Amino acid sequence: MLCAECGEEHDLGSIDPAFGWPDSYAALSPSQQESHGRWTPDFCTFELPGIEPRFFIRAVIPVDVAGVDGGIWWGVWIELAPDSFHRILKSWDDPEQEYLSPCPGKLANQVPGYAATLGLDGLLRMTGLDSRPAFQFPDACDHPFAEACRDGVTAHVAQGWLDDLAG
Questions:
Q1: Whole domain around residue 76: which residue ranges?
Q2: d(Cα 19, Cα 1) in Å, to the nearest integer?
Q3: Which of 15, 31, 95, 126 is most enclosed, with most CB atoms within 10 A?
Q4: What does the H/E/C string look like for 15-54?
Q5: What are the pLDDT digits (tens) for 37-74?
């Protein structure tokens, strides 16, 4: 699609912006990750001596993109309170999981190009056995990244997100 903002062609294809780990887990040394953490493609936990355990779930943030069917899906990590994490873990394979009430969580990744996205509040809801949980920012959150995710973006902005993560 020819971008009205820059005049270049943006082919967003099927690539969505995503993070491999929660930032705090990625900041651990390899030996700390091995001895104090557990990581799967869906879950991450770690407990360092003298520090409360931390619990994370991989989720998506769906974002409408003007002119792009289906928009894009940010792949992010959400930090949860221990009780929420264990409730979700317990219901992970339950066919009725999508009917669980949403749980509060915090974005566990710093999004390039934005100030202080780590710790932004939102709600995590289960979406079914064949899809990742979805994270949504509340309307009251006036952070520019949260607003972009809620309101949708142009293909130019979406391409910038992909370029920033690749960069």
A1: 23-166
A2: 26
A3: 126
A4: CCCECCCCHHHHCCCHHHHHHHEEECCCEEEECCCCCCCE
A5: 999 999 999 999 999 999 999 999 999 998 888 889 99
